[in-house]
Backbone:
């Protein structure tokens, strides 16, 4: 299993647009064959900040996810609205 956590920060004034983009991205990502889990959280005190918690069958599946049309569309839509560069990191589950 391959785990990915991504922190996506939009400009504060783009929180509602960010929510729409992240909601669509998560729904489409969960439809991918090798997606085990894809959950998006919105930070309570900073609603323009989102965190994905993803589980993929393997690293190849996570890499393939990044090349899908829906990820491309999300990045294109979100790019001008980013308040900071996305932080996308792979994690190893310990317990």
Residues:
């Amino acid at each position: 299993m391959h785990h990915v956590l991504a922190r996506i920060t939009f400009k504060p004034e783009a929180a509602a647009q960010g929510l729409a983009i992240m909601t669509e991205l998560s729904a489409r990502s969960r439809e991918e064959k090798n997606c085990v889990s894809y959950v998006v959280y919105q930070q309570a005190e900073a609603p323009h900040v989102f965190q994905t918690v993803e589980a993929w069958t393997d690293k190849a599946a996570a890499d393939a996810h990044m090349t899908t049309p829906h990820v491309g569309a999300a990045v294109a839509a979100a790019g001008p609205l980013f308040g900071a560069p996305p932080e996308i990191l792979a994690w190893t589950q310990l317990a």
In short: The chain has one domain: 2-91. Residues 43 and 58 are 28 Å apart (CA to CA).
